[in-house]
Amino acid sequence: MAILDIVTFPDPSLRLKAKPVKKFDKELQTLIDDMFDTMRNEPGVGLAAPQIGQSLQLVVIEYAEEPEDEDAPAPKPKKYVLVNPEVVKRSEEMVEGMEGCLSVPGLIGKVNRHEEITVKALNRHGKPQKIKAEGWMARIFQHELDHLNGVLYTDIASEIYEPINEEAAESDE
Ligand code: NI
C-alpha cells in the first residue's frame, strides 16, 4: 500500500501515448493497488497510469452513482481495472458535463462526451472483459482513456473555469 505522486500539467509525461501492459505479474498487482490508494486519497474517481508517471495502458476507476431517491441507501461504488482498453462502440448521443482532473489541479471544464460507450479491456489478471458504460460512468471512462493517448480534458473542453469553492472540484478524475 502506497500513495504515489501525481504528475501534473504541464509535465510532458502526460502527453505520451501509453504502452500496452505485457506482464500481469506481482509488480503490476502492486501498482494497481497503489493507484487505487492514490486515487482514494485525493479523492478522485479515476486514475490513469500516465498520471503517476508510468507510460502504461492502465486505468483504475471507482465511482458510486448518485441514488435516484434521496432517502435511498448510497449504492456500492463500481470498481474497474482497465488494462490495454479499446473503445469498440460509441453512442451518437453526446452530453455536456463538468470534469476535473487530478493532473490539472484548480480547474474544472465543460466537456462534450458520448452518452454511452462500450470498452474491451483486460482485467488485472489479463482476462478479457467487455464493459458498457453510460452517463457519468461513460464520461469517466472517456476521460481516463484519453489520458492513455496523452489527451487532457482541457484540450477538448468548451469552457474552463476556476471553481469558486471546493465542492465544485469534488469529482476530480
Ligand atoms: Ni484526469
Question: Gist?
Answer:
The chain is of the alpha+beta class. 20% of the residues lie in helices and 30% in strands.
How would you sum up this structure, described in words?
With 173 residues, the protein is an alpha+beta fold. It has a single domain (12-172), classed as Peptide deformylase (Peptide Deformylase, Alpha-Beta Complex). It contains three helices and eight strands, in the order αβββββββααβ. The chain has helices spanning 26-41, 135-148, 153-156; strands at 46-48, 58-63, 78-90, 94-99, 108-114, 116-122, 128-134, 159-161. It has a five-stranded antiparallel sheet with strand order 1-2-3-6-7, sandwiched between helices. A hairpin with an 8-residue loop joins strand 4 and strand 5.
